[in-house]
Amino acid sequence: MTATVNNTPLKQEKTLPLADLVTAGTIDTVLLALPDLQGRLKGKRYDAGHFLTRIADHGAEMCAYLLATDVDMNPADGFALTSWDTGYQDLPVRPDLTTARVVPWMPRTAIVLADAMTPEGTPVEIAPRHILDRQLTRLAHHGLHPKTGIETEFVLYKGTHNQPGHHPLHPLTTENLDYALDHNPTSDRFFRRLQRALAKAGIPVEAIKTEAGPGQIEVTFPYGPARDACDNHLLFKHAVRTLATRSDLTPTFMAAPETGRANGLHLHLSLWSNNTPQL
């Protein structure tokens, strides 16, 4: 792991804030995205002007069931937050404007991450970003802050579930391509599109490599502040899914998508105090 993550909002526009981009006509759509319990981004598309005049300062509402579903978006039992018994009410959602950035893989679009709040104005306890913030606060009380580097693996499959003849899906490659440099044209195009898009979004990539498993890919990122690293990983997965679908490919980050095949997510953590590593 090398250089610290540079997570400047709207990095590719350098110094222009979101309002200036909207006024200039560079941005006409803003995605307000809430991380769910499956590590996915869910939310709404807003007209950029409406987002600036209403949502940026006053927030929005999203159904509480977004934090109480299974992987197939079915409402799950056992949540105190919301259920069939209590009703699936809306929750206030507060934009975190420090996360705003242009989305290079979507035309004239920016994305802003959001935090789920209770009606009383406190963070929802099971919201993933709040769970992380709570742990960061505990460390800060001891004068510590973590830096995190992420290695993440996923498998690319040919086609999509909606295409005839592509069920079951087959891995994009079948042979052992661990550390290979002679990628097929489809893989090479996807890697290039992904790397360029992430760089423009302010999410630097250290390396992309193919693994031994069929269709398996590993991406590594520079280490940096834990919250930035986690936010970037959410956006990375969103980019992978979007760009893969446009290339008639299907990615999965599942730990074990098939018997005998596994994806890893490696978290490299170090604890710092006064810019000095402690552990």
UniProtKB/TrEMBL annotation:
<keyword id="KW-0436">Ligase</keyword>
<keyword id="KW-0067">ATP-binding</keyword>
<dbReference type="InterPro" id="IPR008147">
    <property type="entry name" value="Gln_synt_N"/>
</dbReference>
<feature type="domain" description="GS catalytic">
    <location>
        <begin position="128"/>
        <end position="279"/>
    </location>
</feature>
<protein>
    <submittedName>
        <fullName>Glutamine synthetase</fullName>
    </submittedName>
</protein>
<dbReference type="GO" id="GO:0004356">
    <property type="term" value="F:glutamine synthetase activity"/>
</dbReference>
<dbReference type="InterPro" id="IPR008146">
    <property type="entry name" value="Gln_synth_cat_dom"/>
</dbReference>
<feature type="domain" description="GS beta-grasp">
    <location>
        <begin position="25"/>
        <end position="121"/>
    </location>
</feature>
<comment type="similarity">
    <text>Belongs to the glutamine synthetase family.</text>
</comment>
<dbReference type="GO" id="GO:0005524">
    <property type="term" value="F:ATP binding"/>
</dbReference>
<dbReference type="GO" id="GO:0006542">
    <property type="term" value="P:glutamine biosynthetic process"/>
</dbReference>
<dbReference type="InterPro" id="IPR014746">
    <property type="entry name" value="Gln_synth/guanido_kin_cat_dom"/>
</dbReference>
<dbReference type="InterPro" id="IPR036651">
    <property type="entry name" value="Gln_synt_N_sf"/>
</dbReference>
<dbReference type="Pfam" id="PF00120">
    <property type="entry name" value="Gln-synt_C"/>
</dbReference>
<keyword id="KW-0547">Nucleotide-binding</keyword>
